[in-house]
Amino acid sequence: MMFKVIFLFLFHLGLYLFVVNGSFFLSGFFSVKPMDEVSIVSVREAKTKATYQQYKQMDQKRPAVGEEYATLVIPKLNASIPVFYGVEEEQLRKGVGHIPQTAMPGEQNNTVLSGHRDTVFRKLGELDVGDDLSIVTDHSVFTYVIRKIRIVDKNDTTVVVPKPKATLTVTTCYPFQFIGNAPNRYVLIADGIKYD
């Protein structure tokens, strides 16, 4: 009798954990949308109503932790992914997280984004040096070109160091197909090339 109670308890606990984790996985997986759902055109049209400097100042305001404030657009992957301020599990379940102590998009410094390798960044390994990445906010489009791809230890803090120019650093766990806590990080370093 006791064995049956323990078995039923463990079965229901396992089922609960499977459903909860599965829903988190699917939430992140389906947060990646095709690019045509991001209206870069409307951003450009809206900018005719005010000067670029006014929009740039609006972009520099720090969002609240957990707030969705931008979209990461990856043309080569035909992907647009929501960007949330913060990198707690709550933000990473829904999209890409922006490490708070790093720069805002467009600043002459290092903006660092992070995401899960099995959901939002499952195709990150398909990108090459020379590919574009854009961060689209309500006010501006910040475009970067990938300059370097690195694989570093998970404890390597050089990923978040300040930079002398507008830089976008994108990081995820590596290897991509690793089961459990991955020992390394896959890092894209991109230089700001154009601000629309």
Integer-rounded radius of gyration: 19 Å
Mean pLDDT score: 80
Helix coverage percent = 10-25%
Q: Point out poorly predicted stretches.
A: 42-52
Any idea of the CATH topology?
Sortase, Chain: A
Account of the 3D structure:
The chain has 196 residues and is α+β, with helices and mostly antiparallel strands. The protein has one domain: Sortase, Chain: A. Strands 1-2-3-4-7-8-6-5 form an eight-stranded mixed beta barrel. A hairpin with a 4-residue loop joins strand 5 and strand 6. The N and C termini lie far apart (69 Å). 31% of the residues are buried.
Summarize the structure.
This protein is α+β, with helices and mostly antiparallel strands and 196 residues long. Helix content is 24%, strand content 31%. The longest helix is centred in the first third of the chain and has 28 residues, at 2-29.
Question: Could you outline the blueprint of secondary structure elements for this entry?
Answer:
Blueprint lengths: L1 H28 L10 H7 L5 H9 L7 E7 L4 E7 L3 H4 L3 E3 L11 E5 L17 E5 L4 E13 L13 E8 L9 E12 L1
